[in-house]
């Protein structure tokens, strides 16, 4: 219901008034949703050294865009204002850059960092799933949602210290029941933002329990 209400309000608002980009306040009739193309182009690219102290992720993790002020506003709109259009385009832009840099033939499937059902009800949709769907479509890879699930509802990671983030996600993810056969090759795990890597590591551990042999983490921002 919340998801439908967000869509209806966006549509009704767009009829009598021109759209304005919530990032820069430019009129944005031709942008994606109401995000202007200038702000999309201005998203800075991230570096590749985002694994920090989590050596397990070294060489197996990439964030495409730097978590700058503009990216932070994009993510905020996407998470808390039901902006599925942002999630879809951010996923497609992330996948496009990724395809330019990496050999796609090594990847066999795409999956997402799952949200807890309570968080999905709160936000109206799962932004990571929308991101992953756009990545899968752009890379022509199957999207798998039958690998893992989030089994513990915990406080948002953004409110915690690095050490608290690691403890917060202990045993938060588990294999899905009645799992189908995992694919051969490397599974691409998609997340919106990576910080310490604690969420990614929790998902990787759960994925390994399903029989997935290799995981590469692709974050939109970091």
Structural summary, described in words:
It is a single chain. With 222 residues, the chain is of the alpha/beta class. It folds into two domains: 1-42, no CATH class; 43-221, 3-Layer(aba) Sandwich (Rossmann fold), CATH 3.40.50. Helix content is 40%, strand content 15%. It has eight helices and six strands. It has helices at residues 2-14, 37-41, 69-80, 84-101, 117-123, 127-139, 162-168, 198-210, and strands spanning 61-65, 107-112, 148-150, 173-175, 186-193, 214-221. Strands 1-6-5-2 form a four-stranded parallel beta sheet, with helices on both faces. The protein has a two-stranded antiparallel ribbon with strand order 3-4. Strand 5 (186-193), helix 8 (198-210) and strand 6 form a beta-alpha-beta unit. The chain starts with a helix and ends with a strand.
Main features:
four-stranded parallel beta sheet, 6 strands, 222 residues, two-stranded antiparallel ribbon, single chain, Rossmann fold, alpha/beta, 2 domains
User: How many distinct beta strands?
Assistant: 6
How many structurally independent domains? 2
Let me know the largest β-sheet: 4 strands, parallel
Question: Which class of the largest domain in CATH terms?
Answer: Alpha Beta
Helix content: 25-40%
Q: β content, as a range?
A: 5-15%
